[in-house]
Write a structure and sequence with these properties.
By secondary structure, the chain is mainly alpha-helical. It has 18 helices and 6 strands. The protein folds into 2 domains: 47 residues, Rubrerythrin, domain 2 (Single Sheet); 327 residues, Citrate Synthase, domain 1 (Orthogonal Bundle), CATH 1.10.580.10. A hairpin with a 7-residue loop joins strand 2 and strand 3. Helix 3 runs parallel beside helix 18, helix 8 packs across helix 9 and helix 14 packs parallel to helix 17. The chain is globular, with a radius of gyration of 23 Å. The protein starts with a strand and ends in a 27-residue tail after the last helix. Bound molecules: carboxymethyl coenzyme *A. This is Citrate synthase.
């Protein structure tokens, strides 16, 4: 028997079915609530609202659990590769060796971008933020790949998904090259997804680029950690944009725009800038005091999460990865020591304990990316590169869902009621 949640409003009692997921909280289905009561529900920021049904990613924020298609993020980070995780997110199951080989081959064969796209880059200022380039260039893909924009054709949807996953590293590397005034480097099909990206970013035509295996592995793992994260702001943006029937390239560009904000993907850039500003462990108390001061807008970047009220499981893997990269590159950046001490002091501070504020994925990622050689402005670009698979998997799922409707939230209107128009000479 279906559970019912009764809600009484005035004289009307509405019986709302309670939906049950595989795991996680029950969901009260209020779709008929407005029709039966004439009232809307109010939930700015969607703190209590499920916007869709999904089978891709599950998060238990209280326990610090993150599963993709049922597999724990820690297991994927340790045993899987980014390509395999992409296959899993898109198709629902881990691939066999043969399936993985074919999938990797397909992605590799889509890494080049239309040559005309390079002239697009040249329209931007060299000092533009690379995320500004990403928003523009990814949106522009819809002007180049007309044969994969028919969203009701599953085959075209899959080609668009493969193209986006494959071309994102090429575009991201081009955005970097453009900002430093170096020539674009074409993809190479004999390299791994991540190795190819490193070469396109840091290689120059004058000499062969040497891929450091530990760095390749660490970056691949960072991509796994960012691949999907349920109905976060940018994914919800992609779904909302896609719900109107917009083409996939335009939808992903919308996701990139949302991701750019410092409360979302931009936090990794902000976290490293903050750690560098702190500079020395002695200055940590000053910054902790600012973070706790209600009158100061400063927040501890890389700390806190809408969903995790426990240690973000991705942060655990990140912290381990910092050490691996530092060892491989023989780096000793004092910023890591500041990060470790800041984490320890915050985790023992009553303010952070009471509000359940823990390090999130962005707290350590900037430290690693900086050691590899990426400037801070590229951090969010890397996040976008990795999250593209999550965005396309969620977009595909939404388009295939028979219950899918255009997303159209309602509002609590508090502006003026109807009033007569006064001509300008009488105001
Ligand atoms: N430093 C200090 N205080 C904080 C912090 C922080 N980083 N995060 C939350 N708080 C306080 C906040 O002031 C509020 O206090 P009070 O209840 O007294 O008003 C309380 O904790 C709850 O905060 P909230 O803003 O209502 O929580 P939220 O769920 O809306 O925000 C968040 C989540 C991630 C936007 C927020 O924690 C934040 O701004 N963190 C810093 C930015 C950051 O690291 N973002 C990356 C998120 S993970 C990557 C991603 O998903 O993109």
């Amino acid at each position: 028997m279906t559970d019912i949640a009764k809600i009484t409003l005035g004289d009307t009692t509405v019986e709302n079915p309670v939906l049950k997921g595989t795991v996680g909280p029950d969901v009260v289905d209020i779709r008929k609530f407005y029709a039966q009561t004439g009232a809307f529900t109010y939930d700015p920021g969607f703190t209590s609202t499920a916007s869709c049904e999904s089978q891709i990613t599950y998060i238990d924020g209280d326990e610090g659990v993150l599963l993709h298609r049922g597999y724990a993020i820690g297991d994927l980070a340790e045993h899987s590769s980014f390509m395999e995780t992409c296959y899993l997110l898109l198709n629902g199951e881990l691939p066999t060796g043969d399936e993985l080989g074919k999938f990797t081959h397909t992605i590799t064969r889509h890494t080049m971008v239309h040559e005309q796209l390079s002239t697009f880059f040249r329209g931007f200022r060299r000092d533009a933020h690379p995320m500004a380039l990403m928003c523009g260039i990814v949106g522009a893909l819809s002007a180049f790949y007309h044969d994969s924009t028919e969203i009701h054709d599953p085959h075209q949807r899959m080609i668009a998904s493969h193209r986006l996953i494959a071309k994102m590293p090429t575009i991201a590397a081009m955005a970097y090259k453009y900002s430093v005034g170096q020539p674009f480097v074409y993809p190479r099909n004999d390299l791994s997804y991540t190795g190819n990206f490193l070469r396109m970013t840091f290689g120059v035509p004058a000499e062969e680029y040497e891929i450091v295996p530990a760095v390749e592995r660490a970056l691949d793992r960072i991509f796994i950690l960012h691949a999907d994260h349920e109905q976060n702001a940018s994914t919800s943006t992609v779904r909302l944009a896609g719900s109107s029937g917009a083409n996939p390239f335009a939808c992903i560009a919308a996701g990139i725009a949302c991701l750019w904000g410092p409360a979302h993907g931009g936090a990794n850039e902000a976290a490293l800038n903050m750690l560098r500003e702190i500079g020395r462990p002695e200055r940590i108390p000053e910054y902790l005091a600012r973070a706790k001061d209600k009158d100061d807008p400063f927040r501890l970047m890389g700390f806190g999460h809408r969903v995790y009220k426990n240690y973000d499981p991705r942060a655990t893997v990140m912290q381990k990865t910092v050490r691996e990269v530092f060892d491989a590159l023989k780096v000793n950046d004092p910023v890591f020591e500041v990060a470790l001490q800041l984490e320890e002091m915050a985790l023992n501070d009553p303010y952070f304990i009471e509000k359940k504020l823990f390090p999130n994925v962005d707290f350590y990622s900037g430290v690693i990316l900086s050691a590899i050689g990426f400037p801070t402005t590229m951090f969010t670009v890397l996040f976008a590169l990795a999250r593209t698979v999550g965005w396309v998997a969620q977009w595909n799922e939404m388009i295939s869902d028979p219950a899918q409707k255009i997303g159209r939230p309602r509002q609590l209107y508090t502006g003026p009621a109807h009033r007569p128009f006064v001509p300008v000479d009488q105001r």
